[in-house]
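debug: dumping io for the single-chain case to check the tokenizer round-trip. Nothing else runs in this session.
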Amino acid sequence: MSRPAPYRRKAMEHHAKRYGIGMLFMLPWMIGFSAFVAVPVGWSMFMSLHKVAVVPGGFKYDWIGLQNYRDAFLKDNVFPIELITYFQQMLLMVPVIVIFALLISLLLNQKFPGRFVYRALFFLPVIFATGQVLSELFSQGAGDIPFLDQYNLEPLVRQYVGGELAKTVMEVLGRIVLILWYSGVQILIFIAGFQTVSPSIYEAVRIDGASPWDSFWKITLPASMPFVSLNMLYTIIDLFTFPLNPVLKHIRDNMFKVDTGYGYASALAWIYFAFIFALIAIVTGLFSRSMSKRRGRA
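debug: decoded output
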């Protein structure tokens, strides 16, 4: 049975008013996104399909299609190697940072005197070690780990992981300071996630005789899985925008070369973005499938 026309009209007016108010609140963000994100991103895609040259009157654009993308893999001998090498390093560092943040957050979630101070100490590098400050610290050797050379660990690493991955593992170990500097936000997210678990659940399992180890595997870790996926995504984005990223440095260098310029650099940036987007999609898909299976079992 169809509803009367006046009722349908009032319902449409109600929905339009409700969504209109919501769109009004979103309007400042939409204007800012269009002006500062959408337009630059679209212009970058436009330049990646052109040969961009700086001329006295401004910029000259010559349409070359996908030639810049082909040159990135067929003519550039540096970009593919740096891209693959850096991805290998990040695939090792991301889980290490997330696991480290999970373990530290478990400790900082306990009740002990001065835990607020320790939480602040782990978060301080997030505030100070960013951008130019981080670059200056690394240029002065603050990020180096002397025990790697002191104890000659490279032969031992080669023995256990093989020659192909030894260089990547050694570079990750050499950046172990980044694990401390880049885990502050993840630690806070995990601590906030632990607060979502009711203390009565832990009291119930303690009464049933469960050990702290059992509580972690059966309660804490399953409840933290959404926050694990969130921290994985955050860490991926954070590390791939790292100021000392060699891939980003290669892109910046090509921006100011006469034979490459803005067009080729834009193509490199889009290739880099595609790799990051694919990795994020894979991680999101894996965690979504895991969470759906867990809900199905429940």
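debug: round-trip ok. Strands lie at 50-55, 58-63.
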